[in-house]
Design a protein that fits this description.
It comes from Pseudonocardia cypriaca. InterPro entries: Peripla_BP_I, SBP_2_dom. The chain is of the alpha/beta class. The protein is built from 10 helices and 12 strands. The longest helix is centred in the first third of the chain and has 21 residues.
């Protein structure tokens, strides 16, 4: 009896805390109750919150399509929020989702560690949280590309294409697990090529415009490099444009994503953009929702972390690549 009483008291305290927290968010009021006891054996998800880093990126549009397709099959609604690469915005969005009392939250965090406190608030409010594409501290499960393998494959391809020797550039990105894992995989691959040296490494914001500026400066300072690894396609394509504008030829530039823009660039025989490690954001979205549904229904997951495999897309196999959905 004592344990039951403590559990109820804890639930009331959590609910009270959520009300006070939500009172600070737009659209919340002090009298809005937060139900922290949703889901359970056989429960069906009805409301889904999906948070992505940047909806202007086709990658996240494809991810949203995967979630929406899965939601239609179970009769659920999806509220998609654009994080705008802003941790503060994602914090506010989570507080709004708490007040809306959604059932599950699928989160593509702009900062894997920094989003942790907001994830804990969502969980305390009875929301099941699944990280998608990148890790999010505190999430109950996650589905991601095998990003270490992606970085390894991309840089192995790059190394082979430049003959196993020479200087290269590495354009890094924001502090999220997917980016960090790709860089780790790249550097692991380059350990097999002692005559290749990363002569410059700088952080971008995962976008093309920033990569264009960074790559322009890096190429000016290192005009004899043979290749560039960008942590995603927008970054690699920005570097490609920088090289073109600088009048540089003969570079080998690789990325990660196999996005529609990357496919279009690979279709240009003269382009220095040579290859990209494929992602499948649509599939990631569908798997994340399936995991969230199981958690909401009180079912045990076979695995808490799912890795989606990758492959290199080059001009040689481009015709067989189906692309994003």
């Amino acid at each position: 009896m004592a344990r039951v009483g403590i559990g109820r008291l804890r639930a009331r305290l959590v609910a009270t805390g959520m009300v006070l927290a939500c009172a600070l968010a737009a659209g919340c009021s002090e009298g809005d109750p937060v139900n922290t006891e949703r889901g359970g054996a056989g429960a069906q998800v009805k409301t889904i919150g999906l948070m992505v880093q940047d909806l202007s990126n086709p990658f996240f549009q494809s991810m949203a399509n995967g979630v929406k397709s899965g939601a239609e099959k179970i009769g659920a609604t999806v509220n998609v929020q654009d994080g705008r690469q802003d941790l503060g915005a994602q914090n506010e969005q989570i507080d709004a989702f708490i007040q809306q009392q959604i059932d599950v939250l699928l989160i593509n965090a702009v900062d894997s560690d920094g989003i942790g406190p907001a994830v804990e608030r969502a969980k305390a409010a009875g929301i099941k949280v699944v990280a998608i594409d990148v890790a999010a501290r505190g999430a109950e499960a996650q589905v991601t590309l095998d990003n270490t393998a992606a970085g390894n494959l991309a840089c192995t391809y790059l190394a082979d294409q430049i003959g196993g020797a020479g200087d290269i550039l590495l354009i890094n990105g924001t502090p999220i697990s997917s980016v960090q894992d790709r860089v780790t995989g790249c550097k692991q691959a380059l350990q097999n090529y002692p005559q290749i040296k990363i002569v410059s490494e700088q952080n971008g914001d995962n976008g093309r415009a920033k990569a264009l500026t960074i790559a322009t400066d890096m190429l000016t300072a290192n005009p004899t490099v043979k290749g560039v690894f960008g942590i995603n396609d927008p970054t690699a394509l920005g570097a490609t444009l920088a090289a073109q504008q600088a009048g540089i030829n003969g570079l080998v530039i690789v990325g990660v994503d196999a996005s529609p823009e990357a496919v279009a660039e690979l279709q240009k025989p003269e382009s220095m953009f040579k290859a990209t490690a494929a992602q499948d954001p649509n599939t990631q979205g569908g798997i994340a929702l399936e995991m969230a549904q199981k958690l909401f229904a009180g079912e045990a997951l076979e695995q808490q972390s799912v890795l989606v495999p990758t492959e290199m897309i080059t001009r040689e196999n481009l015709a067989q690549y189906k692309g994003w959905q």
